[in-house]
Design a protein that fits this description.
about 100 residues; mainly alpha; two-stranded antiparallel sheet; about 5% strand
Length: about 100
């Protein structure tokens, strides 16, 4: 809600507890392979959304960072990493069968 209403301070402050809890849950469930992969993907998603939110709050989403890549497009990196983690997990399950 804070992001949608433009409450920058509240939005920024909510990043830390959300990310912290995600990392703690991932650590606590590290023995269960399925949960570890899924929770790491969620952590990647939180990082990507947090970066996206920050780039919109401070209006640098359209600025070029590398060559023709804008700042907002960099949010795809953690999203893709999370997707790769999930894909790897399910591909290893398929291969084992």
């Amino acid at each position: 809600m804070s992001w949608a209403f433009g409450f920058k301070l509240l939005g920024m402050l909510m990043i830390f507890p959300t990310l912290f809890i995600s990392i703690v849950v991932t650590y606590m469930l590290r023995q269960e392979k399925r949960e570890w992969y899924h929770n790491n993907a969620v952590t990647c998603w939180i990082i990507a959304n947090s970066y996206w939110m920050i780039s919109e709050f401070y209006e640098f989403e359209d600025k070029l960072i590398f060559f023709n890549i804008t700042a907002i497009q960099l949010a795809a990196v953690p999203f893709l990493f999370g997707l790769i983690l999930i894909a790897y997990y399910y591909l290893t399950l398929i291969i084992k069968k």
